[in-house]
């Protein structure tokens, strides 16, 4: 889903995969870390870097749910 909360745009992305261990979520943002065979392991790293460069954030809120927050433009 998506929407606006105060001065932020919030995007929530969910899938039906097994998810992650929330207590270890920082490990999933390391470059080249992957749990999938044949994957490179840069997707979450790049997505978080883009969010941070825009003044926002990206984090897991549930095992299979990622929340992206970005500053809203007026």
Describe this structure in words.
With 74 residues, the protein is an alpha+beta fold. It is 15% helix and 32% strand. The protein contains one helix and four strands. The chain has one helix spanning 43-53, and strands at 2-5, 8-14, 57-62, 65-71. Strands 1-2-4-3 form a four-stranded antiparallel β-sheet. The radius of gyration is 13 Å and the shape is globular. The two termini are 21 Å apart. The mean pLDDT is 93.
Give, in order, the helices and strands.
EEHEE
Helix content: 10-25%
The low-confidence parts are: none
Q: How are the strands of the largest sheet arranged?
A: 1-2-4-3
Q: Total number of β-strand segments?
A: 4
Shape: globular
Our measurement of the CA-to-CA distance between the termini, rounded to an integer number of angstroms, reads: 21 Å
Average pLDDT, to the nearest integer?
93
Helix count equals: 1
Q: Beta-strand level of the residues, as a percent range?
A: 25-35%
- Gyration radius from CA atoms, angstroms: 13 Å
- Given helix and strand content, the structural type is alpha+beta
Mind summarizing the main beta sheet? 4 strands, antiparallel
Oligomer classification: single chain
């Amino acid at each position: 889903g998506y929407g606006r909360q105060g001065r932020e745009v919030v995007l929530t992305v969910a899938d039906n995969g097994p998810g992650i261990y929330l207590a270890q979520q920082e490990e999933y943002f390391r470059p080249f870390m992957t749990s999938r065979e044949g994957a490179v392991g840069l997707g979450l790293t790049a997505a978080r870097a883009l969010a941070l460069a825009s003044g926002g954030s990206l984090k897991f809120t549930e095992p299979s749910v990622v929340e992206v927050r970005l500053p809203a433009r007026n």
